[in-house]
Write a structure and sequence with these properties.
It is a single chain. This protein has 428 residues and is α/β, with parallel strands linked by helices. The chain has two domains: 2-78, no CATH class; 85-414, Rossmann fold (3-Layer(aba) Sandwich), CATH 3.40.50. 52% of the residues lie in helices and 8% in strands. It has 20 helices and ten strands. It has helices spanning 2-12, 21-28, 38-45, 54-64, 66-71, 85-91, 94-104, 125-150, 173-189, 211-228, 247-256, 274-280, 293-300, 312-321, 326-332, 337-343, 357-364, 372-388, 393-405, 412-423; strands at 31-32, 35-36, 49-50, 76-77, 159-164, 198-203, 237-242, 259-262, 284-287, 306-307. The strands form three sheets. A six-stranded parallel β-sheet has the order 7-6-5-8-9-10, sandwiched between helices. Strands 1-2 form a two-stranded antiparallel ribbon. A two-stranded parallel ribbon has the order 3-4. The longest helix has 26 residues, at 125-150.
């Protein structure tokens, strides 16, 4: 009754002076075709609408909420998310925080933009050596925790490749799993294949009723079981799932990370915040041009981030064309992609708790909505290029410090200040 009355009043006051007002009303009305559109209700009641990243703000203005934007563009704004640099760098990473303070003073704890002053230390050999020591300490601390909680012994000389976030199909933990399986399969099939030794660390939770996400968690653990118990590959890869992801163990994971996996399909991630926390701690982003990865890329420059995969406009064009068929990818490469898909149901990964028919069906029967197979080769190639550069530790650490230096923008202090000025109008 209340929604019907709100909808009636909105229609009554709708601006009929616009030439295309019937089309706009069809987009904006709360009630349409027997459906209550709650996002429309929210926009009608709101005095400000925030896309939380530059990319997603553009998407809601140009497509998702275009009808509202055409009528009230002044409502729309972008306030990119932020995180607490005091907690996720200052408190979580004692050796690096201490090193930063020794170099530039402690004002960065009050004003994250002070981190920019680290730029002049990017080519300082003593600072980079100290950063290496701090990262080693962080990795050893995390390895001890992982051994206690997961029983997986990690070699801290390996690259620590981290993906920690809520489990969801669009965030594509499945794409990460496919990459790991591809590396595993190639190691055991091709004696000349020699990837950079890597420890893959994955964590996160699934919503209580989100069965597919829970299946992917089960898959991660099954892949870890197979790989970690195969002596043929353990000098090259290890896989650890960290259970019960929370702020307490996140504060151990972020500082130890060297690669930050941010691999949602372009146009799906509103912003992300793990990308910011990992960047602050000197991890290099491996990701799609999506969410706040866009801002990270603009801040650090192309040489300090690794971007892969379809762009948002390419995803939209592909979906509109109706030309993508997962079976085409499968049939074109039975040796790599096809092999991984087959392994989901042929018993290879079934020792712990059975096969993964649901995951296979999501890809092959439902035609891979999240474009896991479409972005697979670009992703693996980008990962290979990034990890190949790990042998030049001085250059790697220079990029890591550069990421920290540019991360001040992502402090929640900046986000809240922008809200105060532009949304709440309360000043600072």
């Amino acid at each position: 009754m209340f929604i019907e009355e709100i909808d009636r009043r909105y229609r009554e006051n709708f601006p009929h002076d616009k030439e295309n007002w019937p089309e706009l009303l069809s987009q904006n009305a709360i009630l349409w075709d027997g459906v209550a559109r709650m996002a429309n209700l929210s926009v009608i009641f709101a005095h400000a609408v925030n896309g939380v990243s530059e990319l997603h703000t553009g998407i809601i203005e140009e497509t998702v909420l275009k009808g509202f934007y055409d009528i009230t563009p002044e409502k729309f704004n972008n306030k990119t998310n932020g995180v607490s640099h005091r907690r996720f760098l200052g408190n979580s990473n004692p050796p690096y925080a201490r090193l930063i303070t020794e170099a530039i003073g402690d004002e960065w704890l009050d004003d994250a933009t002070e981190l920019e002053r680290l730029v002049k230390f990017e080519n300082d050999p003593s600072f980079l050596d100290a950063f290496e020591d701090a990262k080693k300490w962080d990795k050893e601390r995390l390895a001890k925790y992982v051994a206690e909680k997961s029983g997986v012994v990690l070699d801290t000389n390996m690259v620590f490749d981290v993906q920690v976030k809520r489990f969801h199909a669009y965030k594509r933990q499945l794409l990460n799993v496919f990459k790991i399986l591809d590396i595993y399969n190639r190691i055991i099939s091709d004696s000349s294949y020699n990837p950079t030794p890597t420890a893959f660390i994955i964590s996160g939770k699934a919503a209580q009723s989100y069965t597919f996400a829970k299946e992917v968690i089960r898959l991660v653990n099954s892949v870890a079981d197979v790989i970690n118990n195969d002596a043929r590959v353990n000098d090259k890869i290890k896989v650890a799932f960290v259970p019960n992801f929370a702020v307490s163990n996140a504060e151990l994971i972020y500082p130890a990370a060297e690669i930050s996996e941010q691999i949602s399909w372009a146009g799906s991630e509103a912003s992300g915040t793990s990308n910011m926390k990992l960047m602050m701690n000197g991890a290099i982003t491996l990701g799609t041009y999506d969410g706040a990865n866009v801002e990270i890329s603009e801040l650090v420059g192309d040489e300090h981030i690794k971007i892969f995969g379809l762009r948002t406009e390419e995803v939209e064009a592909l979906r509109a064309s109706g030309s993508y068929y997962a079976w085409d990818v499968y049939n074109a490469d039975r040796g790599r992609v096809g092999r991984i898909i087959d392994e989901l149901t042929d018993g290879t990964l079934a020792r712990l708790s059975g096969n993964f028919d649901m995951v296979r069906d999501e890809l092959m029967t439902n035609n891979d909505h999240d474009l896991v197979l479409k972005d697979f080769y670009s992703y693996v190639d980008a990962w290979t290029e990034l990890t190949n550069s790990y042998s030049d530790r001085r250059s790697w650490n220079r990029s890591a410090v550069h990421n920290t230096a540019r991360s001040g923008y992502f402090s929640s202090d900046r986000t809240i200040g922008e809200y105060a000025d532009d949304v709440w109008h309360i000043g600072r």
